[in-house]
Amino acid sequence: MNSAAPLLSLCVSALETWPIFTNVASTLRVRSLAQRSAQAAREVKQLVEEAVSGVEAALVQQAGETMGKIVAYAADVRSVVSGIARSATEQTHGIQEVNRALMQLDEMVQENVALVEELAAASAALQTQADALAPNIGRFTIDRAFFQNHL
User: Fold this and answer.
1) What pLDDT digit, counting tens, does each position of 79-120 carry?
2) What's the CA gap between 41 and 76, in Å, rounded?
3) Rounded to an integer, what distance in angstroms lies between the CA atom of residue 139 and that of residue 148?
4) Is-above-0.85 flag for pTM?
5) What angle, 0 to 180 degrees and rounded to 10, lies between the N-to-C axes of helices 22-137 and 4-17?
6) 11 and 28 in contact (C-beta within 8 Å)?
7) Which end is more exposed in the chain, N or C (fewer Cβ atoms within 10 Å of the end residue's Cβ)?
């Protein structure tokens, strides 16, 4: 409040004692109330602005902290996904190696099957020849003394 307020209050009291000045006193009271109301409105406005500024600052800080957490979580997710990708690549290489080994094994099995078939055919041919020679074997005689002297 300004220094004129006590003087104004004194004037208002003096004017109230004279009926002719009652309207003037009322006007002065209204003016005083209007001035105090305007001052209170300015103070309320300042308080509201300070509160809004404080809320905005808090929201900005909270948003910054939240963004920091999101960035950290994103980095963690990126790291996990990168690890999964590395593992998948390693598994792919391992599967390719197993596939190559199975193909080589298949080739070897096919070669073995062919060799077994050839061996079976050769064995059958030998059996046929042995069967054809069997009747003729009885014609040969062996001199034991000859073998004993030459061995």
Assistant:
1) 999 999 999 999 999 999 999 999 999 999 999 999 999 999
2) 52
3) 21
4) no
5) 130
6) yes
7) C
